[in-house]
Amino acid sequence: MSTIAATVPPSRRRQRRRIALSSYLYLVPALILVVGVVHIGIVANVAYSTLDWNGISPDSTPVGGANYAKLINDPIFWTSLRNTFLFAVATIALQMALGFSLAVLVRTRAVLRGLLRALAFVPVVLAPAVVATSFRFLLTPDGSINQLLSTVTGQDIHQAWLADPNTALGAIILINVWQYTGYSFLIYDAAMGQIDHSVIEAARIDGASTGQLLRHVVAPLLSGSHLVLIVLGMISALKTFDLVYLTTAGGPGTATQVLTGYIYRQVIGQFHAGYGAALSVVLVAIALVFSVLQVRLSSREAR
């Protein structure tokens, strides 16, 4: 190797070094964005969480860990955290179940596969603002949803789905499921396409029914897809803001308040920037746990 390296002209070696250096320069914009905006922003947010600050005035008062002590004793924080996790668990479970069912339907139908795939994925590409605004009108007491239910049941229904504390969170969950089930379907559909047909044929020869085939053969082979959807779904739920804000704004009361909405309310609505920063640190810490979990699961699947 040393003999070969010695035979390379110095000009050629300098040219190679320049090419390598220019390749690294392409990474500079991404590094500036990630380090300069994300990482430094997180560090600054941790610093702000130790201040009593309104976010506007140049004056602030250091309070140490007082914001975190306040957070522990804040019932609205615990309500928003509970709502966030309820939203996450319900949406993940329903989206996975419906996405898996749609993928099976598409894979077993001989006709209209392309149309079914398109129809299932169309809601995913819609802007959340459009979806939230549309369903806000559909779910009013005189909206189309109540009219449809009245026609089907034969009863006069005027339920205020988004204004009732007993139904508001459930309504938002179903809106999210309607919009993003297509994403779960896309993951499952792609994963099912990678299953070796000989495995399915062997199970059929052994006498497995359709239910047994799906439960004992197909579902275990999609374990990687299950894990990815769970982790990504949890991270997505932690970031949910626009849907809740544009439908109920966290109400009625705190029935649909989620963690991101409570942060917005503290920082923008009440000018408690220091306390809002402490809430943000908690949100980042939870998201970090699931991000690390996603990386580890991805590494395990790659082995």
TrEMBL record:
Limits of the ABC transmembrane type-1 domain: 81-294
Localization in the cell: Cell membrane
Transmembrane parts of this sequence: 21-48, 85-106, 118-139, 168-188, 217-238, 273-293
InterPro entries: ABC_transporter_permease, MetI-like, MetI-like_sf
Keywords for this protein: Cell membrane, Membrane, Transmembrane, Transmembrane helix, Transport
Topology versus the membrane: Multi-pass membrane protein
Protein family (similarity comment): Belongs to the binding-protein-dependent transport system permease family.
Name this protein carries in UniProt: Carbohydrate ABC transporter permease
Organism in which the protein naturally occurs: Lysinimonas soli
